[in-house]
Design brief:
- By secondary structure, the protein is mostly helical.
- The chain has five helices and two strands; from the N terminus they run αααβαβα.
- The radius of gyration is 38 Å and the shape is elongated.
- The chain starts with a helix and ends with a helix.
Length: about 230
């Protein structure tokens, strides 16, 4: 009996050592010290002409998920909300993420837990009186059966398969986050660009109005003989 258990332990250790594939090791990714050729200044130049103060850069600061709310602009909030609700790229990324999550749940249920198969049947039979030398009889016959099956993960193939499904979920989640950040950043950039152009249009019109007033004054001086 001791030899029997010893062989079982040795076989279990050997099978455990024959796991499918090596364990995943996260690569060592070093964060770069800078993303520009020259170091960025700690603050912007003061806008003295407009009466504004200098803006300071908060490097490596944590930002909220809805980072555009830091601008405190209700119009910008509504614009981004409308963009998120009507973005086909974001909807596609969300659908891919949901599918990956459902695939992981389905794989976990089918691979980690036993499969139970139950069958229930009923038949109505009749015996002949010639067989049992008596009157014939009619009776009901019920049959019930339950089957349980479980896939043993001897070589780690099931674990590796579940790891691949979980990795796909992480990948699709990062894809969704990238689409989300790209969409919101593009909307904010376009809104700021549009506001800048509108301000330039207003300023240009003010300059044109000043030139027209100067022209009117010069024409009056010319008509009066001053110039």
């Amino acid at each position: 009996m001791r030899h029997y258990f010893r062989h079982i332990i040795i076989a279990a250790l050997v099978l455990n050592g024959c796991a499918v594939g090596p364990d995943f090791v996260v690569p060592d990714l070093k964060t770069p010290g800078a993303y520009t050729g020259m170091p960025l200044p700690p603050q912007t130049a003061e806008a003295k002409a407009a009466g504004g103060a200098a803006q300071r850069f908060a490097f490596a600061a944590e930002l909220p998920g809805q980072w555009w709310k830091l601008f405190s602009s209700p119009e910008l909030d509504q614009l981004i909300k409308k963009g998120i609700e009507n973005s086909p790229s974001l909807a596609s990324a969300q659908a891919a993420l949901s599918k990956a999550e459902e695939d992981l749940k389905a794989a976990g249920g089918s691979l980690q837990y036993p499969a139970v198969d139950a069958n229930l049947g009923a038949t109505r039979e009749r015996t002949s009186g010639n067989v049992n030398l008596g009157p014939s009889s009619t009776f009901n016959l019920y049959n019930a059966s339950v089957g349980v099956s479980y896939q043993l993960d001897l070589f780690g193939g099931t674990r590796r398969q579940l790891e691949s499904y979980a990795a796909l979920v992480d990948y699709q989640r990062y894809q969704y986050e990238a689409a989300y950040l790209t969409l919101t950043a593009n909307i904010v950039t376009a809104a700021i660009r549009e506001a800048s152009l509108r301000a330039q249009v207003v300023t240009t019109r003010d300059i044109v109005a000043d030139y027209r007033r100067q022209l009117d004054i010069s024409e009056k001086q010319y008509n009066l003989g001053a110039i």
